[in-house]
From TrEMBL:
InterPro entries: Integrase_cat-core (IPR001584), Retrotran_Ty1/copia-like (IPR039537), RNaseH-like_sf (IPR012337), RNaseH_sf (IPR036397). SUPFAM superfamilies: Ribonuclease H-like (SSF53098). Gene3D superfamilies: Ribonuclease H-like superfamily/Ribonuclease H. The lineage of its organism: Eukaryota, Viridiplantae, Streptophyta, Embryophyta, Tracheophyta. This is Zinc finger, CCHC-type containing protein. It comes from the Eukaryota. Residues 1-118 form the Integrase catalytic domain. It comes from Tanacetum coccineum.
Amino acid sequence: MFKSFKAKVENQLDRKSKVVGSDKGCEYYGRHTDVGQAPRSFFDFCKDHGIINQYTMSGTPQQNGVAKGSNPTLMDMVRSMLANSNLPEFLWTEALKTTVHILNIVPSKSVPKTPYEI
């Protein structure tokens, strides 16, 4: 998934990916073994393409401010949407997609354009 995201972003913006930030989840970081760290293919892919991996410290979600801060807002909106529509819970992914779409077309204080316009 990251490979296609990287290609799309680099083609559309005509810029190279330089840094990827993540937690130290085994899907990004690798796994610990008796002899040290065994990197995963994601780490190797980044290394091969000159992308720097930046990891947050364990137990510090505040270092992932935007991502971690957005999740509760999204889920609150999804719950509210489902509760007020009397739709079944299995449609929560559709409600989440709708919520993200709404947030992408609403202006914010920090940027003069909406994410959709950008």
